[in-house]
Structures are given as structure tokens and as C-alpha cells.
């Protein structure tokens, strides 16, 4: 089987990362590495998962898991985020019941269930991951810098012209 250029690039990039998942196949290691790198990289992996023309099935299948199987952050942190957003008041002020276990988790936020104290209505609350904005900004700056190298590395990359960001 011929290994495509994008896969060779990823393989080289992963070589430099600490290999915490040696017992996992390459696709799983790539997925786990992207999860550890953070939300922008998870989004990048989600995008790559739709490009089955670039990766063999065993890699694309693992990347597809980034669509709906991202590790959640602690429910207590979510509760703290809600309390901060609600003026520092405890969640019990607003909810009769709040589940610290997330209903779903994604790269940028996760969802928790609760019951409103005011009328007993069941609701879901989307909570953005703590301290995510500086991480996203730093990652986007890095991606912009990497994108500026693409034309130097790949002949087809010359048609790409990254806009914005800073050098």
C-alpha cells in the first residue's frame, strides 16, 4: 500500500511527540495526539476525517471518532464556569438539579442537563471549556505560521495564500 504525502507528514510530526500510546495503532495515536493538542487540532482532525481520499480507512475511521467522542472536562469545572457566568452564585440558586456528568462533550464545549428551580423545566446547558480562548488564539497563530511554509514545501501549495494572522 502506498502511503500518501499527508500521512507521511503526519507520521513525521508524531515522531516528535512523546509516545504515550505505543500500544495503540497509528490512527488511534494520531487521534489521541490531536485530542491532547486541543480544540483547534481536534477541529483539524474532524476536517481531515471527511477526506477519505487522503488517508487509508484505518486512519480516517479513527479521525472520525473526533466528531463525537472527545474526552469531557471535569463536571465540577463546568459547574464553576456556570457559577462564574451567573455572577458567582451557586448553581443551586438557579437549578433544582444539575448533572455534573456531561450529556455530550465536544472540542470546544460540553452539555449538561439541569432542572430549572423557577418552573421545574428540564434544560440542557452548553458550557465552553475553561480557558479555551487563549489556547485557540495560540493554536491559530501557529497554524498561520505553518501555512506560510506550505508553498515552500509543496509545489501545489503555491496556490494557497494564508490571510490574516501574524508572523
Task: Outline the fold blueprint.
Layout (H helix, E strand, L loop, with lengths): L4 H11 L10 H12 L1 H11 L7 H8 L10 H11 L9 E4 L5 E2 L3 E8 L5 E7 L3 H22 L14
Antiparallel strand pairs: 1-3, 2-3, 3-4
Helix content: 40-55%
Q: Tell me about the biggest sheet?
A: 4 strands, antiparallel
Q: Approximately what portion of the residues adopt beta-strand conformation?
A: 5-15%
Which regions are unreliable across 5 or more consecutive residues at pLDDT < 50?
none
Distance between the termini: 38 Å
Shape, per Cα inertia axes:
elongated
Supply the number of helical segments: 6
**What is the oligomer described by this structure?**
single chain
Name the average pLDDT.
84
Integer tally of domains: 2
Family: Belongs to the protein kinase superfamily. ADCK protein kinase family.
Keywords: Monooxygenase, Oxidoreductase, Ubiquinone
GO molecular function: monooxygenase activity
Protein name: Ubiquinone biosynthesis monooxygenase UbiB
Structure characterization notes:
With 167 residues, the chain is of the alpha+beta class. The chain has two domains: 1-69, no CATH class; 72-154, no CATH class. The protein has six helices and four strands, in the order H-H-H-H-H-E-E-E-E-H. Strands 1, 2, 3 and 4 form a four-stranded antiparallel β-sheet that branches. A hairpin with a 3-residue loop joins strand 2 (104-105) and strand 3 (109-116). Helix 2 (26-37) runs antiparallel to helix 3 (39-49) and helix 2 (26-37) packs parallel to helix 4. It is elongated, with a radius of gyration of 20 Å. The mean pLDDT is 84.
Amino acid at each position: 500500500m502506498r502511503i500518501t504525502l499527508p500521512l507521511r507528514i503526519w507520521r513525521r510530526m508524531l515522531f516528535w511527540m512523546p509516545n504515550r500510546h505505543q500500544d495503540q495503532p497509528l490512527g488511534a495515536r494520531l487521534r489521541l495526539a490531536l485530542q491532547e493538542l486541543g480544540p483547534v487540532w481536534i477541529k483539524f482532525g474532524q476536517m481531515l476525517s471527511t477526506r477519505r481520499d487522503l488517508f487509508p480507512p484505518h486512519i480516517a475511521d479513527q479521525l472520525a471518532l473526533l466528531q463525537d467522542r472527545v474526552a469531557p472536562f471535569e463536571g465540577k469545572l463546568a459547574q464553576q464556569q456556570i457559577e462564574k457566568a451567573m455572577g458567582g452564585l451557586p448553581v443551586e440558586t438557579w437549578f433544582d438539579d444539575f448533572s455534573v456528568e456531561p450529556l455530550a462533550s465536544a472540542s470546544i464545549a460540553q452539555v449538561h442537563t439541569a432542572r430549572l428551580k423557577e418552573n421545574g423545566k428540564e434544560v440542557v446547558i452548553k458550557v465552553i471549556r475553561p480557558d479555551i480562548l487563549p489556547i485557540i488564539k495560540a493554536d491559530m497563530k501557529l497554524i498561520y505560521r505553518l501555512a506560510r511554509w506550505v508553498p515552500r514545501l509543496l509545489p501545489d501549495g503555491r496556490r494557497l495564500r494564508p490571510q490574516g494572522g501574524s508572523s
